[in-house]
Structures are given as C-alpha cells and as structure tokens.
Amino acid sequence: MPTQANDLDAYWMPFTPNRRFKAEPRIVSRAKGMVYYTPEGREVLDATAGLWCVNAGHGRAEITRAIAAQTDELDYATNFNLGHPKAFEFASRLVNILPGDLNHVFFTNSGSESVETALKIALAYHRVRGKGTKTRLIGRERGYHGVNFGGISVGGIPKNRQYFGGLLTGVDHLPHTFDPVRNAFSRGQPAHGAELADELERIVALHDASNIAAVIVEPVAGSAGVLPPPVGYLQKLRAICDRHDILLIFDEVITGFGRLGAPFAADHFGVQPDIVTLAKGITNAAVPMGAVAVRSHVHQAFMDGADAAIELFHGYTYSGHPLACAAGLATLDIYRDEALFERAAAIAPHWEQALHGLRDAPHVVDIRNIGLMGAVELAQIPGKPGERGQAIFHRLFDDGLLVRVTGDIIALSPSLIVTEDEIDRIVAAIREGLGKIA
Ligand code: PXG
Ligand code: PLP
Questions:
Q1: Which of 40, 300, 332, 419 is least surrounded by CB atoms within 10 angstroms?
Q2: Taking the model in full, what pTM does it have?
Q3: How far from 377 is each of 176, 180, 213, 284, CA to CA, in Å?
Q4: Ligand 2: distance of its center to the CA of 336 in Å?
C-alpha cells in the first residue's frame, strides 16, 4: 500500500509503545550541544546524552568533519584479510587509555554485538587452553547486555527475555544489588550489599568451576535504573573469579568514556576486568560502533593455542568501519583536549547535591547517583506500573526537558559538557514536573 512520506506507520519503532507514540508523536529534528530542537524549533534540554551516548554533546563539528573527510578518502574496506590505517590507529589509541593490560581491541557495531563477541571470546578462550568444559555464563538479575540472544540470556530484565523462548542454556544469574531498605537515598556507592558477591561462590559450588567460563556485569547497572555497586562488591567478584579461573567481563557500554569521571568504570572502582565491552561514547554516537577489549593473557591464549590459522572465527562486515574509526579518533581527541572525563569528575559533586535536593519532591521514593549518572525513582501508581513514569516523561518533554524513563524510574545521564547552571535547570524542571503530574 503506498504511504505518504510523513506517514508514521511504516516505521516499527524500537522499545516504544508504537500505538501510543503514533497517536501523539514527539519528534526532534536537530541538535547542538546540550539541546535538541523540535521541527517547530522548540528547545528541549537533553538530560540523557541521547541514550547515554553523546558524551561530548551533540553536533560536534570536529567529528562531523572527520567523518566527511573519511568518506571522501576511503568509504569502506573490509578488515577480513585486509586492513586500513584508521582501524589500527583507533585500536592503539583505545589501548592507550584502557586500564591495565587491556591491550587488544576487537571492533563491532553496537553494544549488543560487543556483548555477543565478548561471550564468544570467553568460551573460545577456555577451549583454546584445553579447558573446553568451561562453558557456563553467569549474568545478573536486572542486568542489561543488549538485545541479542547471548545478551538477553545473561541479562536480567524480565520483559526483554520472556517473549523469546528458551534462550541460551547453561546460564545462571547473580542476585541484583538493589536494596532500598538498607540503601535508599545513598549518595554514590551504597554502603550495604558487598556480601551479595558471595553468591558467586554458591553458584560455583553448585556447578563446579570446571564448568564456568565467565561472569558478566555492568559495573553500574544502567538500564535497570542506575544501580551503583555496593562498596567492595566488585572487588569481591574479582577475587572469586581469580580463585576459580573465571573471566570477569565488565559491560562498560554506558560507564565507559568518562561517565563516572574516570576513563572507564574499571578505573573508577580500581578493579581490573579481563574483558571490557564498549559502544555508545566510543564515537560520541555519531557513527554506530562498539568494541571489545581483552587483556594480554586472553589474547595470547588464542595466539598460542588456536588449532587453525584463523585464531577467532568471528567478525562483522562493518568491524572497524572507516567512518566509525574516523569518528572515534576525533571523539578521543575531544575527550582529551577538553579533559571531559576530568570535567565530569569535577562537576559530579554538584550533580549529586542537586539531584538529592529532589528528596522531598512529590512521588520520590529513592534517588541514586554516581559520576554523571542519576536516577529518581517514583512511587508506582497502585496496579499501574510505569504509568507515572510515562506521565512524567511526557510532561517534561512538553516542558522542554528530555529524560529517559524505565518503568517509574527517571534515569539521567547528561553529556559531560553539562554546566552547573544546566544541572540546576534539569533538577528544577523535574521538581516542577513532579508537582504537575498525578
Ligand atoms: N550493554 C549495556 C550495559 C548497555 O547499556 C548495551 C549493552 C547494548 O548496546 P546497543 O548499542 O546494542 O543498544 C547497552 C545499551 C535504556 C537503554 O533505556 C540503554 C541501552 C540501550 C537502549 C536503552 O537505559 N543500553
Ligand atoms: N585521553 C584520551 C581520551 C586520549 O585519547 C588520550 C590519548 O590517546 C589521552 C587521554 C592521553 O593523551 P596524551 O597521549 O596526549 O597524554
């Protein structure tokens, strides 16, 4: 059936209530810095950095220029059995800012692909070392690791799993760390809950370490509503993984590239993972890209132990795409030249103070923050989970503020260029909006 160019029907939108959206669409058509503009020219302050990804702010000319120049010079080349300079250059630059000996980088095109890649590397790593029984993967309740089959299997968001059948077998889950009774309104890392990491020992005892390949966690759970790890929790996970020859994977798709005021969450928490997944801020979201970084011993195991000329039978047509690499290099230049990670650290105390000022605002039952991440959790309308969340999202957008809402949680992650004045405006708008909704 022919459709109009402006018909909303043809596009099946992701993670969206399509019927509701199309009855009452909200569209942005331009962006610069901290601000989106609607087609009518109305300003919407972006408190979400797009979707946790535009860490250097929207519309960065340096990145745009780098992409344009790259299109002219080399639009595409495969990295299967061939190479182009910027992929090597970008991998080297990433390795220089990654913590410890995360010295080797595999390129993907999204966070979801990074997760699949990391899980496959973990399985193959044990196998090339002659430990092929180590196949079980351990995720965590409320974890988000993208939407592909591996990611939803180790993930712990029920709605993202329930419609899609049996998923991967051989997966187990740690309990989540959200504990409002002991930790409500914590500033930064909650004090209570490090002992939840001991559940990993229980899981190891159940399945035996000889059957477990890897543990994957977000250092700070993002999608599930910003859940910073309890003090000491990640250190315990690291120690247990070491004890049992289990790889520790940090999914840093959100926490990477300065979100916590350090280059990576691994730096912020002082815990060294074996594998890190990246995406989003890697190119300031200007071109889709993801990456998986692995430590020397992981990479070396493949170089020493692979039983075929190709050490890893895995890759995407667009792995290390020239436009993405060009965008990524320009993005790293901005992060360095404007010291944006340091800037995030410097402004985080103001963020914390301002956000916790909402404690007495209507409907607020918890506030969480770390780095430039934040969440304001609202009381559910009895019997109608998510209704209040939708109401505040619409109210705020119409009043000129974009937030991300999951269920009844307002999630916030401004670009690292955010000013104190903009933080105050974000918080004031939320207070005002909460006063207007039921
Ligand atoms: N891992 C983590 C930790 C993520 O946050 C992914 C993997 C998947 O990345 P891609 O690029 O495949 O989307 C993510 C993505 C939300 C929200 O509402 C968060 C994400 C994606 C969509 C919505 O918080 N994070
Ligand atoms: N920060 C970022 C984001 C970088 O990309 C780099 C280098 O690549 C650095 C810091 C380190 O900068 P320099 O090599 O100038 O010390």
A1: 40
A2: 0.96
A3: 17, 11, 35, 27
A4: 5
